[in-house]
Design a protein that fits this description.
By secondary structure, the chain is mostly helical. It has a domain of 103 residues: NAD(P)-binding Rossmann-like Domain (Rossmann fold, 3-Layer(aba) Sandwich). 42% of the residues lie in helices and 10% in strands. It has a three-stranded parallel beta sheet with strand order 1-2-3, covered by helices on one side. Helix 2 runs parallel beside helix 3. It is globular. The two termini are 32 Å apart. Belongs to the short-chain dehydrogenases/reductases (SDR) family. GO terms for molecular function: oxidoreductase activity, acting on the CH-OH group of donors, NAD or NADP as acceptor. This is Dehydrogenase/reductase SDR family member 7C. InterPro entries: NAD(P)-bd_dom_sf (IPR036291), Sc_DH/Rdtase_CS (IPR020904), SDR_fam (IPR002347), SDR_family_member_7C (IPR052148). Keywords: NAD, NADP, Oxidoreductase, Signal.
């Protein structure tokens, strides 16, 4: 048995994910199950959401999980075992008004992990996508002019 180790990671900061994955692998040698369960969302009309915020949502919900998965995947492949889980959203299957950036990032994740599932079959690595309906998330009230405060985490 391994003692638990807390490792903080901002999944939207793509540049630090490789180092965190390396730290995890150095500590434990391998990962048996990777659960990607971080997310950010924002509610607003397409024309009112900045491209900067669209990119931040895409980093957290798409590029973050795939970057972490790609960092952990080689050890799973070499061991020919493992399970990758992505907790996504029903909005990865259907779009609803005022959630364009979020839905787009979740659609992208569904596409990526569906393809990965097919590719990993030969290595006996399972890939699961969980798409729950609406859940209650932590939310901060936005300060005027502060778009980051309007993000749901």
């Amino acid at each position: 048995t391994y003692a638990p180790k807390l490792i903080l990671l901002d999944i939207s900061d793509i540049n630090c994910i490789q180092d965190v994955a390396k730290e995890i692998l150095n500590c434990y040698g391998c990962v048996d199950i990777l659960i990607n369960n971080a997310s950010m969302k924002v509610k607003g009309a397409v024309q009112s959401i900045s491209l900067q915020l669209d990119k931040k949502i895409m980093d957290a919900n798409y590029f973050g999980p795939i970057t972490l998965t790609k960092a952990i995947l080689p050890t799973m492949i070499s061991r020919r075992t493992g399970h990758i889980v992505v907790v996504n959203s029903i909005q990865g299957k259907i779009g609803i008004p005022f959630r364009a950036a979020y839905a787009a990032s979740k659609h992208a994740a569904v596409g990526f992990f569906d393809c990965l599932r097919a590719e990993m079959e030969e290595f006996d690595i399972s890939v699961s996508t969980v798409n729950p309906t609406f859940i209650c998330s932590y939310h901060r009230q936005p300060a005027p002019g502060n778009w980051e405060a309007s993000i749901w985490k």
